[in-house]
Amino acid sequence: MVCNVVIEFAPLEDELGDVLDKAMRHACCTEQTLATRSGVAAEKIHDAIDYRYELTHDELRRLASALKLNEPGLLALAQNRYPLPEISGLPFCLYPLRTPHGIGVANAYIVAECGQSSGILFDSGADYAQIERVWPKRIRKLDAIFITHAETEHVGGLAGLQRTLGRVPVFFPEGICISDTNVTAMDIGGGFAMGEGARLRFGAFEVRALKTPGHAEAHNSYIVSAPALPDATQMLVSGDILFAGSAGRGFFCTQTFADSLRRIFTELPGKTVVAPGHGPLTTLEHERLHNPFSC
Ligand SMILES: [Fe+2]
To answer: How many domains does the chain have?
Structure first.
């Protein structure tokens, strides 16, 4: 059975200034060197990164060219008109759990067979109290929790979930380091590291790990599919690698991050639904067309 998706409005994670800032870092480029390359005044670039936009279309085109960004996508962001696709055709019910963290919003996702009261969870939000507020009443049991990477905004709710739901097996990237979070070894005890290509079955679903380092040294994305329905849409939980209209930051290594992002853009089918760690759902073919970082 192909189910409808539960969708709510979610704003984009990034606006023009964030995208320019990230692109400059990825290109190891200062405001001055970008000004020289693009012919756009360094002051205007500085103001744009500071969310004060006075860039003309021609200047945006020159910045896109100098930073090797997708020009239509950058222009759409600058006009607050970045398009989003309709999401449909997933062979399961999807519950996006969006919780505030600092000035932003972090996403977690429950995947469940429609009508069932158990499911699997991807990431756990910044803290349990926030996750509890948006928890779907129907879901009373988790079969597994998958972690994309160990930042508090993505794993902070783990201890509370374990206390409330009983011990749930936790699966995480190889080499994960939880020392900078509020998670303890006990919260992930009984769990397993998933390396590249590792697969797990939960009822009708299969979860496959893609090793996507760069934002963090240990970072997995997960492909969720229904093997009995090979033509059904699959979903990519992309963590902090790919967002609708933007991408994460290469905190661990910008080159490794770029390799992971390119891999996602090139290896997966276009109709793959992307469920990112921040911002709204999208599809891969949509982001190939519009995302500033798709070039
Ligand atoms: Fe994040």
So the answer is: 1
Cα(240) to centroid of ligand 1, in Å? 5
- Ligand 1 centroid – CA 149 distance (Å): 8
| 22 belongs to a structural domain | yes
The vertex-12 CA angle with 49 and 278, nearest 5°, equals: 100
Token pair listed for 49: 């990164």
pTM for the model stands at 0.94
pLDDT of 174 above 60: yes
Output the CA torsion 109→194→227→155 (10° steps): 0
Cα 257 to middle of ligand 1, angstroms: 14
Distance 231 CA to ligand 1 centre (A): 31
Query: What three-state secondary structure class fits 48?
Result: helix
27 found inside a domain:
yes
User: For residue 36, what are the domain limits?
Assistant: 16-78
Task: State in Å: Cα 181 to ligand 1 middle.
Answer: 13
Give me ligand 1 centre to Cα 139, in Å: 24
Does residue 8 register a pLDDT over 70?
A: no
